[in-house]
Amino acid sequence: MIEVIAQGTDVPELNTEIVFRRRPLSLPEDLRPAWRIGLLVLLLSTCCRGGKSSRARLHVLSWGIRTKESQVDLVAAISGNLNPGTLLVRFDPFLDRALDFAIGEGAIQHVGGKSVALTQTGKRLSEEIRQSDSVFVAEKKFIDLIGQKVSEELVRQMFGWKD
Asked: What domain of life does the UniProt record list for this protein's source (predicted)?
């Protein structure tokens, strides 16, 4: 689609054609909502007891899975070799957006004020992802490594929160 604007304006410098062309936009997979929803249901089903978690813990898990460096740091904090309070965990707005989409799709639901939980739809999606050998391959390996070792208490220590 091509659109031409700004013809015949009174400003001589702007008296030219401006052409806009639609071009494909490449979006990294970790920013795609569908990828994030898949990751969320995997995290909830594998790393969270009862498929339930606070948003803060999901942010920690999502941060921990993104890069090799964050994976090493998270494993070190879990094993006690690194003070959790020294980690710089990034709260990711794309994760919050994916949470909203997942709620809209019926894969997760709000539980209380700060927690979310898998629905039956989310559990089925997680099982389908688990059974596939071609999706989330590296992520599933790391998720299986950490299991349910990222507790809400560890998350509180990471952020220095007190009850």
From this structure: Bacteria
Tokens of 138: 């590296």
CA-based torsion, 77, 81, 82, 85: positive or negative: positive
CB 116 within 8 A of CB 53: yes
110 vs 159, higher pLDDT: 110
Structure confidence by residue, pLDDT tens digits, 28-43: 666 678 889 999 999 9
Q: Measuring CA to CA, which residue among 121, 143, 118 is closest to residue 46?
A: 143
pTM: 0.80
Between CA 109 and CA 118 the distance in angstroms is 6
Q: Which of 39, 46, 56 is nearest to 154 (CA)?
A: 56
Considering the chain, what percentage of its residues have pLDDT values greater than 90? 67
Which residues in the chain belong to E strands, given as ranges? 2-5, 18-21, 52-54, 108-111, 115-118
Q: Residue 119: how many CB atoms within 10 A of its CB?
A: 18
Query: For residues 152 and 101, what is the distance between their CA atoms, to the nearest angstrom?
Result: 24
